């Protein structure tokens, strides 16, 4: 038998064949899809017009191939597809498979042209004798054309037109078949046919079918396996072994016997194949596509949402969605299955799906932005105790919940803004348990803001006059409110924006209000983790990065947005933040119970008003994470009394409620990893970059304010008089104190004397160092930097003593 390739069949032969068959009562051109009686009224003139209107060339269909989303280690985490298909070349398909499909569908395939006249006449005779369609007369080429037209269809009407039992459709099909036979070789047509064919149970194309039913590649199919698959093409549903094993076996055996009849296989081969099992249902792979079937469905949807934002994949979301499901892409992502498993284990240990409260954890690699894990307590789905909300991401993404208020985790950014502005990490502020900030002005990027009635309190036991480190350890609200006033809300807002922080529900900038440092905005675990990761990376902020590479069906790289990092903080500023937040996890800090291992760790607790959400965010130099426990069901209520891990919550807090989730996940994720240490802050960072304040005690407050402004500071006058030996109505002292100095541009608050000599905690001792010699580098005392007595100390934040 001679194999005929393209170029071996002339145009004249094809046209004569087409016309001859078309004229044959119109019946043969109709492909025998109906008895001859159905052709009444279909004239030769109509046939001719149909022929004339058809194109002379067949536009090849683009095979829709599944795309795969893979984890960082290469494992498949999801398949995106309209039809589960993996195209292969003919050389990647077992020869026995090629022989099986030809034997049962078109045994003269390599001998005839677009139409097998002999087979058509045979089928015509059978169909007319039965009065209905019993046999088809379509060649493999004609079947390929029909499959292609269905594949191309973009509407129900187009699908119906491609499958309609009409003479017009069969004439069109035959005309296209003639064109295809001129364009492609027989082997090329067979390859395209096998890649397009439906093999039942959701498997499209021979490679997907081989993997689905037998877990082998198409090149490794045996005779029995090939015969079973070849038999499916006639009716993918009826002969599907997962639906009816007996029918599948009977059809397979028909194929094997036909191959024996055509002497494609020997008697011994046929008998062995007939005895072989049809398929082992225990190894049949379920065809699961889409993120809902991923082991990480929420992460998967976040990846898809990011891909749909890429204009390279289409002009609009629908085009991009179609492209992702049909282009045969290989999408590599950032998720680390081991770290994901560590985070999931923590969720499983500390929470349950049917809890009233929800829990969520995001984990990010500092310095790269790679999102290593994303987990939550409620699983993906629409059933009870399931959700479609992703509690880790912003509302702008499909399914994104939009975050929660972050509480005192916001204080870390006040720390960073303060150090950036030159404040010492040991900067002291008198911080009573309750302060009255009603009407007090806070500078913003647009001017000032204030709250008419605002008397915030501390929620933890604090040091009366703490340093920044001590205030962070105890999460002292009043300290950070006063510090944010001195630093200015604009500095905090700008820093937050540079770290990717905005309102996760509205995308609006951070709200500049007096309570800003206590966390009034809505943020997500992923946002917060990425921002904290910048501290761990010594000031380098990286946008969360999930899609690391995309390759097309041919293995060629597709251009996508890559890593996006920027040095936001000077390394020495980040080192100072790390020192402050590291002490939170040391003895005396709110996070001390969460410390583990030998690596340096840093973190911050967060509890919002009425404890509707609690947080713990922290990091080592190699991994950052944020854990949140919150009420996610409106109307949002306090966590107290709600269930977490099947038990009622008594006293919700960042350290005791969210902290264990963070600690368990981080401990497992860092197990076996190298020990890491933070870079120690410089002496300048510890001391602060302060400028000496002018002496203004006893001055008129307005004159004093102007003098401060002339020296490069902002000034505010507190209207509440204080005890002082200075004359009533004059400056009693300032905050920060003159002896401490202040960073240039920072706010200095002037306190006005009431003329009373009552106890003022020594605040009038403003000129104690007024006569200090200009070149003195150590204060009077014992010479070791510790001073000689209670009034001769050597505070490390004092710029006058650089050698302290």
From TrEMBL:
Keywords: Carboxypeptidase, Cell shape, Cell wall biogenesis/degradation, Glycosyltransferase, Hydrolase, Multifunctional enzyme, Peptidoglycan synthesis, Protease, Transferase. One of its GO terms (molecular function) is peptidoglycan glycosyltransferase activity. It catalyses: Preferential cleavage: (Ac)2-L-Lys-D-Ala-|-D-Ala. Also transpeptidation of peptidyl-alanyl moieties that are N-acyl substituents of D-alanine; [GlcNAc-(1->4)-Mur2Ac(oyl-L-Ala-gamma-D-Glu-L-Lys-D-Ala-D-Ala)](n)-di-trans,octa-cis-undecaprenyl diphosphate + beta-D-GlcNAc-(1->4)-Mur2Ac(oyl-L-Ala-gamma-D-Glu-L-Lys-D-Ala-D-Ala)-di-trans,octa-cis-undecaprenyl diphosphate = [GlcNAc-(1->4)-Mur2Ac(oyl-L-Ala-gamma-D-Glu-L-Lys-D-Ala-D-Ala)](n+1)-di-trans,octa-cis-undecaprenyl diphosphate + di-trans,octa-cis-undecaprenyl diphosphate + H(+). Residues 675-704, 751-804 are annotated as: Disordered. It comes from the Bacteria. In the N-terminal section; belongs to the glycosyltransferase 51 family. In the C-terminal section; belongs to the transpeptidase family. This is Membrane peptidoglycan carboxypeptidase. It comes from Kribbella sandramycini.
């Amino acid at each position: 038998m001679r194999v005929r390739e393209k170029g071996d069949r002339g145009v004249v032969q094809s046209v004569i064949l087409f016309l001859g068959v078309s004229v044959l009562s119109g019946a043969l051109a109709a492909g025998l899809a109906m008895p001859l009686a159905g052709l009444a009224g279909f004239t030769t003139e109509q046939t001719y017009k149909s022929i004339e209107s058809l194109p002379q060339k067949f536009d090849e269909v683009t095979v829709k191939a599944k795309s795969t989303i893979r984890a960082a280690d290469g494992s498949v985490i999801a398949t995106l597809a309209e039809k589960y298909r993996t195209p292969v070349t003919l050389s990647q398909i077992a020869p026995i498979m090629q022989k099986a499909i030809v034997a049962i569908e078109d045994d003269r395939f390599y001998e005839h042209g677009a139409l097998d006249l002999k087979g058509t006449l045979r089928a015509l005779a059978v169909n007319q004798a039965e009065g209905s369609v019993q046999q088809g007369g379509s060649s493999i080429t004609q079947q390929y054309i029909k499959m292609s037209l269905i594949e191309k269809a973009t509407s129900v009407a187009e699908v119906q037109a491609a499958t309609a039992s009409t003479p017009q459709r069969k004439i069109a099909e035959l005309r296209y078949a003639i064109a295809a036979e001129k364009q492609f070789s027989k082997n090329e047509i067979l390859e395209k046919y096998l890649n397009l064919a439906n093999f039942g149970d959701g498997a499209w194309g021979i490679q997907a079918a081989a993997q689905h039913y037998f877990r082998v590649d198409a090149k490794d199919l045996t005779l029995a396996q090939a015969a079973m698959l070849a038999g499916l093409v006639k009716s993918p549903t009826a002969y599907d072994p997962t639906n009816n094993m007996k029918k599948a076996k009977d059809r397979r055996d028909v194929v094997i016997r036909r191959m024996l009849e055509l002497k494609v296989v020997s008697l011994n081969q046929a008998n062995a194949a007939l005895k072989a099992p049809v398929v082992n249902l225990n190894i049949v792979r379920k065809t699961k596509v889409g993120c809902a079937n991923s082991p990480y469905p929420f992460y998967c949807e976040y990846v898809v949402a990011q891909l749909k934002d890429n204009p390279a994949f289409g002009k609009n979301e629908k085009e991009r969605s179609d492209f992702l499901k049909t282009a045969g892409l290989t999408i590599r992502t950032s998720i680390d299955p081991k770290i994901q498993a560590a985070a999931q284990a923590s969720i499983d240990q500390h929470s349950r799906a049917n809890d009233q409260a929800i829990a969520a954890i995001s984990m990010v690699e500092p310095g790269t932005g790679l999102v290593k894990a994303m987990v939550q307590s409620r699983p993906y789905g629409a059933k009870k105790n399931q959700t479609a909300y992703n509690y880790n991401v912003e509302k702008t993404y499909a399914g994104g919940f939009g975050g929660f208020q972050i509480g005192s985790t916001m204080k870390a950014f006040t720390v960073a803004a303060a150090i950036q502005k030159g404040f010492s990490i040991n900067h002291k502020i008198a911080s009573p348990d309750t302060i009255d900030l009603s009407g007090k002005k806070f500078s913003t990027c647009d001017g000032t803001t204030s709250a008419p009635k605002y008397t915030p309190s501390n929620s933890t036991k604090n040091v009366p006059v703490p340093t920044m480190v001590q205030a962070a350890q105890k999460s002292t609200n009043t300290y950070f409110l006063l510090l944010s006033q001195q630093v200015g809300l604009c500095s905090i807002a700008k820093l937050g924006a540079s770290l990717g922080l905005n309102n996760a529900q509205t995308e609006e900038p951070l709200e500049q209000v007096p309570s800003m440092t206590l966390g009034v905005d809505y943020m997500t675990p992923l946002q917060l983790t990425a921002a904290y990761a910048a501290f761990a990376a010594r000031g380098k902020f990286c946008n969360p990065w999930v899609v690391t590479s995309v390759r097309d069906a041919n293995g060629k790289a597709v251009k996508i947005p890559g890593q996006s990092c920027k040095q936001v903080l000077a390394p020495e500023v980040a080192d100072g933040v790390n020192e402050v937040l590291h002490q939170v996890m040391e003895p005396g800090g709110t996070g001390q119970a969460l410390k583990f291992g030998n690596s340096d760790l840093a973190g911050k607790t967060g509890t919002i008003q009425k404890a509707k959400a609690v947080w713990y965010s922290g990091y080592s130099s190699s991994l950052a994470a944020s854990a949140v426990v919150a009420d996610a069901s409106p109307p949002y209520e306090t966590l107290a009394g709600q269930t977490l891990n099947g038990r009622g919550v008594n006293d919700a807090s960042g350290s005791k409620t969210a902290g264990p989730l963070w600690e368990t996940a981080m401990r497992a994720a860092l197990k076996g990893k190298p020990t890491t240490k933070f870079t120690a802050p410089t002496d300048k960072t510890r001391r602060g970059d302060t400028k000496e304040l002018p002496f203004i005690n006893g001055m008129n407050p307005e004159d004093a304010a102007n003098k401060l402004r002339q020296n490069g500071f902002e000034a505010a006058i507190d209207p509440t008089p204080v005890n002082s030996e200075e004359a009533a109505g004059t400056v009693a002292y300032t905050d920060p104190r003159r002896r401490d100095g202040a960073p240039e541009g920072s706010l200095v608050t002037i306190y006005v004397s009431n003329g009373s000599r009552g106890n003022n905690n020594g605040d009038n001792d403003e000129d104690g160092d007024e006569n200090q010699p200009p070149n003195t580098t150590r204060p009077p005392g014992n010479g070791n930097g510790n001073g000689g007595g209670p009034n001769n100390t050597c505070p490390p934040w004092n710029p006058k003593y650089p050698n302290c």
